[in-house]
């Protein structure tokens, strides 16, 4: 391993949900040093947070444009190489686009942009930039999710016929029933979140998990959304039927008002020979189901797992892998790509996953709006 990769952070301040996950994950495999940031739009808060976490303040900038301008003045070997974009959704596109145009690598939070059109523009920008781009569908980094992908690829399930991904949360319950509160949350504001709350925020993870684990593409969808108040018609719940092929069907179910649910992401894939089931809140168990044998439980770190899964574990079996490790595995893959080393294409979600995600979000909104009709993905 060479020198540490110079990482910049946009958003993810002390007031944020996701900032700590990226900061810790970037440090887990000793590949990155955080050298610059705009953690918050308010400069004082920005500098105060940098001091709090003990990062030198000389490259804490007042805003994103200044970060790009000032970093480009530095000699290449000192400059930020990759930026993590952890802001609310509407800022992902302008930030990621400008970063790519100026030669930076990008690690972007999901949903990658707020529209499909922006996603395609970003894809063109990346083709010209030829830098590394990752979308942090965090859960793909778990060793047992990687194991699912590899088992399916190796034919352990035979022909797949049913897929079912669920992402149930209940946190919007504490906000949605209060008129004042529901007008202040960015996830319920289409100008900041994009056209969907629930499908855009969490349904898209479930969608991505289906395509990541099966290696198949979802071809068409039919969505039925729910909102609870007329003054905020952003979806807070939805069910999407999916067709992957003539005889491969399933669903994505997502909710932010599933009372009492925390981060209930789960996925089940059923084939002619076996079924696989995995749950994010118990991520170290992968259930292998069969018609003629007792159910088996696969766990991380054992030699029976695939190379891709084993690459994502750092300690012997019995040391649980969690969400920080999962994100760290994505950062590890990105580090290898930036250094020009060999890596498995399952190590991190790419621009294509980002584009597919926006296609799914927009198509599900369209399907719901048109009265729950089938819509083909592009
Ligand atoms: N991968 C995952 O599992 C996962 C989980 C949670 C959130 N997310 C995504 O991460 C992103 C952020 O979500 P969050 O929950 O952390 O949001 P948040 O509202 O908790 O935090 C957003 C942060 O961005 C900062 N910010 C806002 N405008 C900025 C600007 N102009 N310049 C710099 N910083 C700015 C805020 O000050 C804050 O620190 C969203 O796109 C969300 O979808 C992904």
TrEMBL record:
Residue span(s) of domain Gfo/Idh/MocA-like oxidoreductase N-terminal? 7-137
Alphabetical list of InterPro entries matching this protein: Gfo/Idh/MocA-like_OxRdtase_N, Gfo/Idh/MocA_oxidoreduct, GFO_IDH_MocA-like_dom, NAD(P)-bd_dom_sf
Give the molecular function GO annotations.
nucleotide binding
Question: Matching SUPFAM superfamilies, A to Z?
Answer: Glyceraldehyde-3-phosphate dehydrogenase-like, C-terminal domain, NAD(P)-binding Rossmann-fold domains
Species assigned in the record: Arenibacter aquaticus
Which residue ranges does the record assign to the GFO/IDH/MocA-like oxidoreductase domain? 145-276
Q: What is the lineage of its organism?
A: Bacteria, Pseudomonadati, Bacteroidota, Flavobacteriia, Flavobacteriales
In Swiss-Prot or TrEMBL terms, this protein is called Gfo/Idh/MocA family oxidoreductase
């Amino acid at each position: 391993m060479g020198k540490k990769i110079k990482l910049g952070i946009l958003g993810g301040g002390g007031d944020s949900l996701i900032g700590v996950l990226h900061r810790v994950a970037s440090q887990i495999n000793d590949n990155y040093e955080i050298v610059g940031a705009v953690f918050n739009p308010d400069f004082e808060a920005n500098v105060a947070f940098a001091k709090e976490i003990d990062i030198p303040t000389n490259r804490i900038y007042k805003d994103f444009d200044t970060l790009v301008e000032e970093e480009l003045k530095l000699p290449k070997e000192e400059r930020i190489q990759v930026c993590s974009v952890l802001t609310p959704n509407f800022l992902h596109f302008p930030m990621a686009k400008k970063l790519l145009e100026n030669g930076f690598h990008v690690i972007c939070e999901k949903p990658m942009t707020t529209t499909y059109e922006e996603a395609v523009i970003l894809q063109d920008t990346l083709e010209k930039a030829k830098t590394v781009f990752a979308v942090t569908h965090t859960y793909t980094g778990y060793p047992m999710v990687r194991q699912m992908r590899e088992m399916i690829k190796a034919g352990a399930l035979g022909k797949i016929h049913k897929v079912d991904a669920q992402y149930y949360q209940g946190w919007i319950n504490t906000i949605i029933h209060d008129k004042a509160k529901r007008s202040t949350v960015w996830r319920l504001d289409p100008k900041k979140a994009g056209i969907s709350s629930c499908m855009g925020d969490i349904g898209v993870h479930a969608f991505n998990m289906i395509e990541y684990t099966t290696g198949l593409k979802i071809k068409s969808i039919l969505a039925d959304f729910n909102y609870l108040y007329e003054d905020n018609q952003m979806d807070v719940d939805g069910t999407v039927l999916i067709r992957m092929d003539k005889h491969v069907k399933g669903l994505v179910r997502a909710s932010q008002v599933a009372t009492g649910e925390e981060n209930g992401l789960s996925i089940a894939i059923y084939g002619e020979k076996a079924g696989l089931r995995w749950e994010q809140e118990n991520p170290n168990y992968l259930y292998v189901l069969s018609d003629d044998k007792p159910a088996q439980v696969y766990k991380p770190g054992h030699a029976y797992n695939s190379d891709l899964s084993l690459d994502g574990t750092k300690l012997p079996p019995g040391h649980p892998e969690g969400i920080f490790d999962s994100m760290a595995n994505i950062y590890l893959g990105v580090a290898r790509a930036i250094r020009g080393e060999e890596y498995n294409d399952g190590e991190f979600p790419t621009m294509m996953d980002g584009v597919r995600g926006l296609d799914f979000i927009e198509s599900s909104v369209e399907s719901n709006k048109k009265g729950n009709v089938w819509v083909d993905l592009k």
